[in-house]
Write a structure and sequence with these properties.
heterodimer, A: alpha+beta, Glutaredoxin, 2 domains, five-stranded mixed sheet, 51% helix, B: alpha/beta, Ubiquitin-like (UB roll), de novo design (two linked rop proteins), four-stranded parallel sheet, 16 helices, 9 strands
Chain lengths: 173, 398
């Protein structure tokens, strides 16, 4: 990481922590904010957060890895989460999942090399009467079909400049 | 939001109760009278466990240590449940009314609403409601002119963990720790958030509190059964004509409910989400109430062509993913059961091994620390009990 990037991260973490009075109970709000801005929480960020709250960095790691929305590994700017639980499965999430993988060019748990898109499973997101459902960051999409997710992905792609899928990147290299 | 979020499908009582009406009527009473009214209403927790709300409040009110906390559990993670999402979207004022009434009753000075990460799109909406209530004097200092009744609400965001719907795990999460359930006792009413007395109520429970004070204890008690008073919101999904959120009195039979939602040809329904039991067609005359088939309101309908083994597989897959890993029976037991269900599909699970798995499931039910591990095998066991012939006897895969 460049020194200037480190400095920027430090400033951000301190600013976020200051808003939350540096109490241990602020750990999850801080992690959520860091994740939202940087799409990941690296070891340097965890050390910074630990210093600010006066706890061991391992504690920060253990909390970050526990919750699915603040996982440390870097995700794309657009995080696709497809519900895999009971009602959405009955409604046919499987074909939607296939189409998503094809359109994004990545599998579940993966991120595109340009770090724009990532794809993962989510457990029940409370849209059971309108499944299959997915979240893209905080936007919810319901009653999905393969055709519908194709259009959604195309729409997001058209908003991104110069996005390449993993498969396209492999072909070029 | 990109798609409209459709809401209820039959008329909900909540739509007929004006905001702040129940709160104003409750605040005219003494603290003891508020708790007595909830006691008399026989209101039980709507999250699924069914603990009497009046008893919970009474225990917290009896504690002398301060500050106390009034917490709303909006971590609605049970598969097949979405009623709280509808309540928070359409009737948030009733929930905050209920929280404020509870705060008055137990003497809490701060409220926290723990909203699950998957409902992040509701965060701003709820913050706006809280801001409006602060402006109109429904939150803040000396509420309703009662000197010394200071109460404010903060919205706390979850970060994606099913187990945090368990109340002690929820507290751990609020305090900034991994959402691992605590040993009980001490119960949260004695030692909860930051070691202080805390009451944790489900979203729907709190909305009913507001309705009870608005429409009266007698009105509420006149519906339902002896042990399960009042109406209940049901989240209905799966193979039926009209999925959605419905309100029915407690005690409705499964068959009647299915008729209302257009799912008469169902071969089974999953009652109470992934941790609930699978009720086969032969038991459709049973009643949905705490004393018969208890439920947090989730009903997933399975049509005649559904493969019950695949359903057991999906449910166990969910629990393997969501077990917090703290205690051994749950952490190791769920993957073993899942493996067994996969072996059933492959035709490699002997009856002897299946019996061993049943024994393991019973061990998990008694030896797990929290409700997750104690109930994760309920669906598996009831599917084996009622659909053994369908699940067994599959041809080995080549």
């Amino acid at each position: 990481m460049l020194i200037t990037e480190r400095d920027r991260l430090r400033e951000d973490v301190l600013a976020i922590a200051e808003l939350t009075d540096c109490h241990r109970a602020s750990l999850i709000p801080i992690l959520r904010k860091v994740k939202e801005k940087y799409r990941g929480i690296d070891t340097y960020a965890m050390q910074l957060i630990a210093d600010v709250l006066g706890i061991h960095p391992v504690e920060v790691y253990s909390v970050a890895t526990f919750y699915s929305f603040i996982q440390p590994q870097t995700q794309g700017r657009l995080a696709f989460r497809l519900c895999r639980t009971l009602s959405c499965e009955l409604e046919g999430k499987e074909s939607v999942a296939e189409q998503l993988q094809r359109d994004l060019g990545i599998g579940f748990g993966e991120t595109t090399p340009d770090q724009v898109f990532s794809l993962e499973w989510a457990n029940c997101m409370g849209m059971c009467d309108q499944g299959p459902a997915m979240l893209v960051n905080e936007t919810v999409y319901t009653q999905l079909t393969p055709g519908k997710v194709h259009d959604i992905v195309e729409e997001y792609k058209s908003q991104q400049e110069g996005h390449v899928t993993k498969r396209q990147a492999e072909r070029v290299l | 939001m990109s798609t409209s979020i459709k809401s209820s499908t039959n008329e909900l009582t909540f739509a007929s109760v004006p905001a702040a009406d129940g709160l104003n009527k409750a605040l005219a009473l003494s603290r003891v009278d508020i708790i007595d009214a909830i006691h008399e209403s026989k209101l039980k927790g709507r999250g699924g466990a069914g603990f009497p709300t009046g008893t919970k409040w009474n225990l917290a009110a009896a504690e002398t240590r301060t500050p106390k906390y009034m917490i709303c559990n909006a971590d609605e993670g049970e598969p097949g449940t979405f009623k709280d999402r509808v309540i928070l979207t359409e009737f948030p004022d009733l929930v905050f009314d209920g929280m404020t009434i509870g705060a008055r009753a137990i003497g809490a000075s701060l409220g926290l609403l723990y909203l699950r990460a998957e409902y992040g799109y509701l965060h701003e909406h709820l913050e706006n409601v809280v801001a409006r209530r602060r402006k109109t004097g429904l939150l803040g200092r000396d509420i309703a002119g009662i000197e010394g009744f200071n109460y404010d609400v903060l919205i706390a965001m979850g970060a994606g963990a099913y187990v945090c719907g368990e109340e002690t795990a929820l507290i751990e999460s609020l305090e900034g720790f991994r959402g691992e359930p605590r040993n009980r006792p001490p119960f949260p009413v004695v030692s909860g958030f930051l070691g202080r007395p805390s009451v944790i109520n489900n979203v729907e429970t709190l909305a009913w509190v507001a309705c009870i004070f608005s429409k009266g204890v007698e009105w509420f008690r006149s519906y339902g059964t002896g042990a399960s008073a009042g109406h209940k919101l049901f989240s209905i999904s799966g193979d039926c004509e009209h999925p959605g959120v419905y309100e029915f009195p407690f005690g409705i039979t499964v068959a009647k409910l299915l008729k209302e939602v257009g799912g008469e040809d169902a071969k089974a329904v999953q009652v109470g989400g992934a941790s609930g039991r699978c009720v086969p067609r032969s038991e459709f005359e049973r009643r949905l109430a705490f004393e018969d088939v208890p439920t947090g309101g989730s009903i997933v309908v399975f049509g005649p062509d559904r493969d019950m083994r695949a359903i057991a597989h999906n449910i166990l897959d969910f629990f393997v993913d969501e077990s917090c890993g703290q205690c051994t029976p749950c952490r190791l037991g769920n993957p073993k059961l899942l493996q067994g269900v996969e072996m059933l599909q492959e035709g490699t699970c002997s009856l002897q091994y299946l019996n061993d798995l049943k024994g393991l499931a019973r061990t998990m039910q008694v030896a797990s620390k929290c409700g997750l591990g104690q109930t994760s095998s309920v669906a598996f066991m009831s599917i084996l009990e009622h659909f053994e012939n369908e699940v067994l006897g599959r041809k080995p895969l080549l």
